[in-house]
Predict the structure.
Amino acid sequence: MSSRRSRSRQSSGSRITDDQIIDLVSKLQQLIPELRGRRSDKVSASKVLQETCNYIRNLHRQVDGLSDRLSQLLASTDTDSDQAAVIRSLLME
Amino acid sequence: MNKYNPPRMNPSSLRSRFATRFLRSLSEINAQKPTASSSSPTEIFRRYRRIKVAADKSMAYSVRSRRTWSRAMLWKLRTRPCGRRSVKTSTIVRKTRHEKQNKNTTTATTTGEDGVVSGVEADELRELVPGGEAMDLYNLLDETAHYIKCLTTQVQVMKKIADFYSP
């Protein structure tokens, strides 16, 4: 049986272990709102990747929507004078 | 001696670098609008495209070449004024693969490399992350995490700006 703890089959350079992959997968899991806070041994790597793809697509859609919104808003404003104010409001986090 | 520290955005944080660049681009885009037709659907669509490119550009420049995905994105942005990128992608693949040679990869295999992750999902992810085609699984996961952090920053800042300008 191929042990999950064994070294992977990279032949040159450093060895990427299964553990490192598993670590990265759980790191990803923490970034995804859907899966955050669930125990990493309860969520399969496959599910994490799937949700990651969905989440990235979702973020792309949000950027699209916001670009659209901004393009309409800009039609009627002059941004130059407001820049300082915008940045200040971004500070209040 | 009391030091009053007002809430202050770290000027070198990703968020502030992105916000500054993006706002500058927005000003430029806004300055170029033809006054007569600035509200026509075509104009708005054109502006939408430019804003979207500006958002991606601002993000990629804020990260610079510290990340494979940002390098790939910068490359795409520089060489695709009108959307043709089939030729260029193969160059990126050759470049990044060569760069990674010394580090830790042999090939970006698509069959389940070590049983933890299946090739199909990894490939799907590769299509979503800029430059992903040439990454091995380890780098793909690493880059994805950073890419997601940057995307969420991008969305947050854009949201704030849009809210600011909303009536």
